[in-house]
Design goal:
InterPro entries: Beta-gal/glucu_dom_sf, Galactose-bd-like_sf, GH, GH2_Domain-Containing, Glyco_hydro_2, Glyco_hydro_2_cat, Glyco_hydro_2_N, Ig-like_fold. Its EC number is 3.2.1.23. One of its GO terms (biological process) is carbohydrate metabolic process. Helix content is 15%, strand content 34%. It is α+β, with helices and mostly antiparallel strands and 686 residues long. The two termini are 42 Å apart. Residues 6-22 and 681-686 have low confidence and may be disordered. The longest helix is centred in the middle third of the chain and has 18 residues, at 399-416. The protein folds into 4 domains: 32-194, Jelly Rolls (Sandwich), CATH 2.60.120; 198-305, Immunoglobulins (Immunoglobulin-like), CATH 2.60.40; 309-588, Glycosidases (TIM Barrel, Alpha-Beta Barrel); 591-677, Immunoglobulins (Immunoglobulin-like).
């Protein structure tokens, strides 16, 4: 979890850099970004450390200038480079006595080593999760006399190994490579924060509503770092706001002493009365802001109050069944690779939202936290996944691999556990879950994850349920809260078989789809989704379906086109829309709109009656505060439970025979566009 900190009086020497590179959000306003111009060099023979490339007196004559965040793989010269690359820059810094300086990486792919002022600070393995180092004792602080700090970073993107996560399989078969490009570099923000000796290192919020009473408990676990030389007994203060207004609360706190140079977790609890509880949901994504004050440090984060459950083969959000579509989003954008500037996140998430994508198993790794911030504010449900992409049985039983997975999962969970959009975690994708090693992995990793975060649901994406299991104990989905299945065809029969194995568990189709370059081209994608919807709409236990994939992406996996692309998407790599985009939007709308009557009046004034029906099959959930947009006028749609309908009659001026209408969600997104004809049936607009 990345919490915000109150701006301190420390001089932000690099503030101008923050302003010039604000396209990458850093959630802490007190951050000192190290974005902008760096020097860059490839190191294909791993000579850098031996050759002292990290030293401040090392020559930079053959180093290029690049802009960080940086993905070196998008440079055509380096697209297929796998190995070590180096980054270097200098920066001034003015320290303040009694403060600690923390160097943060939101992610670097894949294995990272850091030096400051000729001294090695540390290393990190894992390409998609955040990490940090306390660099206080490594810095020089005399900018008045021209002192500069030299930071050098080596990043190795070689994940074609059997010992990395993700990585190659150890089965010696031709398909040993991962299914996406190993984009290398300092791919996400790098920055410093300045903290007091006692500071808030992390916050975990558990907001659990009582749906019957309308109240909510609020438990706060605050991890406090005491970097000083004396033991302390901190007392915390809390402030909760909703829409800028403080919520008056009475807290119960646990007291505890924290020894010098140690970290401890302090707990506090309170209850919100019913009048102060506004539930977070897909269409009403209400957020609360929390401040935690520990001595001279103040940390901020947001949270939502919502309850997610599975019961009787249904997924319940705040006590009500919900069935919604979604998509898998590969972090890959033409010309940017795995970079995720704010405008890319905004563009992608808006396109997904307007396509009817609400419940996602986004991808096999951790995207930028900006994605989850957007989902929190705008209402999306996300299953986060770490690590295991088709690991073999030997790899899953390997203690070192298990340790690496636990580390990456912990880093993911500790960053994301306050995001209300994150409703579940997945412990892997498409491994041999019917074999003993796969069974052990699933049971053990879910148990480990529940220790970290017992508030989420747990699953994994199985490809082994399509034909193999004959009994529920034959496959590791027995350990999951709900079933996730990657199923590409024969959907009705396979999903019925899965339901017969696990009749009490809802089924989420974590992957389905077909490529745009199949024998029927883009039209084949449209036919595929129409047939898929026909199949699942007769199956009440299917609660979600995530198309693989929202976007095209580059890959080296077998089956990739000669140009390096895998064209599965609703959109292409540059986000231009395919025919499938409109088909998905129309098919995944939670309501239908049809013409009841069109009465042609005099002087260009007509009367139109439309029937709006909330779907009962898929997708299906309670609709509140939806609107019809007619011309420039917004007409409220009555609140509808699944299966309910309402007739809306309104005058239309200035139209001859056709009228274009849109369905607008409470959050402002247009999710359905149709053309109403005065003589023919309602039809979808192109």
């Amino acid at each position: 979890m990345t919490q915000l900190k109150t701006i301190s009086p420390v001089l932000l020497i690099l503030w101008a850099t923050l302003l010039s590179h604000a396209q990458y959000a850093i959630r802490d306003p007190n951050a000192i970004p190290l974005h902008g111009e760096w020097r860059f060099a490839l190191d294909p023979v791993d000579a850098g450390e031996r050759g002292n490339w990290y030293r401040d007196d090392a020559s930079l004559n053959r180093w290029e200038k690049v802009t960080v965040p940086h993905c070196f793989s998008v440079d055509p010269r380096f697209q297929f480079y796998t190995g070590t690359a180096w980054y270097r820059r200098t920066f001034p810094f003015k320290s303040t006595p009694g403060k600690r300086v923390i160097l943060h990486f939101d992610a670097a792919y894949y294995e990272t080593s850091v030096w400051i002022n000729n001294r090695k600070v540390g290393t990190h393995e894992g390409g998609y999760t955040p990490f940090h180092f306390d660099v206080t004792d490594y810095l020089q602080s005399d900018p008045a006399n021209g002192a500069l700090n030299t930071i050098a970073i080596s990043v190795n993107n070689n994940t074609w190994k059997t010992t990395t996560i993700p990585g190659a399989k150890d089965n010696n078969l031709p398909e040993s490579f991962p299914g996406w490009l190993n984009y290398g570099g300092l791919i996400r923000p790098v920055y410093l924060t300045v903290e007091p000796e006692t500071y808030v290192d992390n916050i975990k919020i558990e907001a659990v509503p009582d749906l019957a009473k309308g109240t909510s408990t609020l438990k706060i676990k605050t991890r406090i770092r005491n970097a000083g030389k004396q033991a302390i007994t901190p007392k915390l203060a809390f402030r909760v706001e909703q829409n800028g207004k403080p919520v008056v609360l009475t807290w119960k706190q646990s007291a505890g002493s924290i020894a010098a140079n140690q970290t401890a977790v302090l707990e506090a609890e309170t209850v919100l009365k019913a009048a102060d509880v506004k539930l977070w949901s897909v269409d009403q994504p209400t957020l609360y802001d929390l401040q935690v004050i520990a001595a001279t440090d103040t940390a901020r984060t947001h949270f939502g109050i919502r309850k997610v459950e599975v019961r009787n083969a249904q997924l319940l959000l705040n006590g009500k069944p919900i069935k919604v579509a979604g998509g898998n989003r590969v972090v890959d954008y033409t010309g940017l690779g795995s970079l995720e500037p704010d405008w890319v996140v905004e563009k992608d998430m808006r396109l997904m939202k307007e396509a009817g994508m609400e419940l996602h198993r986004l991808t096999h790794y951790t995207p930028s936290e900006t994605v989850y911030d957007w989902a929190d504010r705008n209402g999306m449900l996300i299953i986060s996944e770490a690590g295991n992409w088709q690991l073999t049985p030997r790899q899953m039983d390997n203690d070192t691999m298990r340790t690496k997975f636990r580390q990456q999962f912990r880093e993911m969970a500790e960053r994301d556990w306050n995001h209300p959009s994150v409703i579940a975690y997945s412990v892997g994708n498409e491994y041999l879950s019917e074999q003993p090693a796969g069974q052990r992995w699933t049971k053990d990793m879910i148990a480990f994850a529940r220790e970290l975060d017992p508030t989420r649901l747990y699953t994994f994406a199985s490809m082994r349920l399509n034909s193999l299991p004959k009994k529920p104990e034959d496959e590791a989905s027995q350990y999951c809260d709900f079933i996730s299945t990657n199923t590409y065809g024969n959907h009705a029969n396979i999903l019925k078989h899965i339901h017969s194995l696990y009749p009490d568990k809802p089924i989420f189709v974590s992957e389905y789809g077909t490529r745009a370059d199949g024998k029927d081209g883009e039209a084949g994608q449209v036919t595929h989704i129409e047939k898929f919807l026909t199949d699942i709409r007769q199956l009440p236990y299917v609660v979600g379906a995530s198309w693989w994939s929202f976007n095209d992406y580059l890959s080296r996996h077998d089956g990739t086109n000669p140009d390096g692309t895998r064209p599965w998407g609703l959109v292409r790599g540059d986000r231009s829309k395919r025919l499938l985009y409109k088909a998905h939007q129309t098919g995944m709308a939670p309501l239908t709109v049809e013409k009841v009557s069109w009465t042609t009046g005099t002087e260009g004034v007509h009367s139109v009656t439309l029937r709006v029906t909330a779907r009962t099959d898929f997708p299906a959930y309670t609709l509140k505060k939806y609107q019809l947009k007619v011309d420039k006028t917004l007409l409220p749609i009555p609140d509808l439970q699944p299966g309910q309908q309402a007739n809306l009659t309104f005058p239309v001026r200035g139209f001859d025979k056709t009228l274009t209408i849109e369905v607008i969600k409470p959050t402002g997104f247009s999710i359905l566009t149709q053309t109403i004809d005065s003589t023919n049936d309602t039809r979808a607009s192109n």
